[in-house]
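Hey, I'm writing a tutorial for new members on how sequence and structure tokens pair up, and I'd like a real worked example in the thread rather than a made-up one. If someone can provide the structure for the chain below, I'll link this post from the tutorial.
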Amino acid sequence: MDDARTDLLVIGAGPYAYAAAAYAGDRGITTTVVGQPMSFWRDRMPQDMYLRSGTDWYLDANREHTFAAYFEDRGLDRADHDPIPIGVFLDHTDWFAERKGLTVQQRTVESLARPNGTFVASMADGGTIEADKVLAAPGVGYFAQLPDWHERVPEAHRSHTVDRVTFGDLAGARVAVIGGRQSAYEWAALLCDHGAERVDVVHRHAEPAFAKVSWAFVDPYVEQTLAVRGWWRGLDPAQRTAIAQQFWEVGRLTLEHWLVPRLRPEVVHRHAETAVTGVAGDGPVTLTLSDGDEIAVDHVVFASGYKPDLARVPYLAGVLDRVQITDGFPDLSEGFETTLPGLYVTGFPATRDFGPFYGFTKGCPSAARIVVEEMLAG
């Protein structure tokens, strides 16, 4: 393809990319978006799963094309979509892109360089895009985390939730799910839905509660982030710890109540405050647990979450020598700019500097507003 020039190149086509690109367009910045539209949500999440978010979460920094506006425009009753099916959320993102005039070039960035004061993205199709500024919005798919012992399970008998999005091949199987957060128990429910014979859920923390929770506690923190530049990093460590603990209790130790009817007790067996201490066999596999139990399984699903490590984003390899990284997180300015001028990062890798809520779509509109205003100010 031919070479191109743009003011802002957005690499990624997930919620954070959509939100920022839309707001940049609203503010008059010539913007090019490259990626596969909502590919993580379409390809790395089960089609029959539900979301934890509410219809009060949205992408539009201008608060116009919100999720609520989507329901009204489509003539849908929000009460009929609680919890929200992933398909409804995806239709909403398509609607949002259409309303905002967002066009995503379905192209792949192979490498990014900044040779002479501007960025040059080399594309897999042979073309290049030159840009004054770049916003990288890498999805969590780059950052799947696995326990040290995972390779002791034969490759054919293991998967991470990022890859395990269909379940038909596990009908009649015995499956261990390693992890105890929402994804672990939701995957357990999906395994029940698809006819698994037995599901053992193994996790180190106490058994979670299942209850209807409100995420409204996050709202004032997001508003503070908008109102006070660098608000999160300006808190003393005790305050950040307290907020993180609140987030953990609501978002991690309390899971959605609508899972309970699907966790069939004759199928799902819970092993709380337990760890895997031994692995034997090449299929089926026997897992030895810290309480002395042994379970024989045909497959192990690792619901072990994600951990930022910017070095795992391949297209950034050419510029990472100029990006300060601490424990896998990029060191960001109060406007999401890295230590390489003109390169910005939003989404999950920004959670250390902006708070845990910026790993959820809840943070999309405020992140978009902050990063674009920073670009305009610079």
